[in-house]
Fold:
Amino acid sequence: MLKSVSTGKSVVVVALLSVLAMILNGCASCDTDKAADCGTTYAANLASCAAVTTYSTCIKDENCCEEDADNGGGTISEYIDTLVTSMNAASCTAAGTPAENKC
Structure:
């Protein structure tokens, strides 16, 4: 069980850094400074399943959900979907607190 949570957190860290890098590269119609703040806040609360939901809400509030992720396809919302799926599979669903993509 402990190894599963650790692996899940590793997946989340990689996904978070990817999303944060995409956001910091700039989004044409979103507030990139505030979106970067979303990433900073989310990273500080990495162990919390609720933080994933809070992060996606923050990205939505800054109008960045449908922005191109600058990696050859896909939107930031789609990458948050991947993050949500990973977190839920790793621990959130089993704990009764599934993460959600609010985009």
About this structure: Residues 2-92 form one domain. The chain has one domain: 2-92. The CA atoms of residues 29 and 62 lie 9 Å apart.
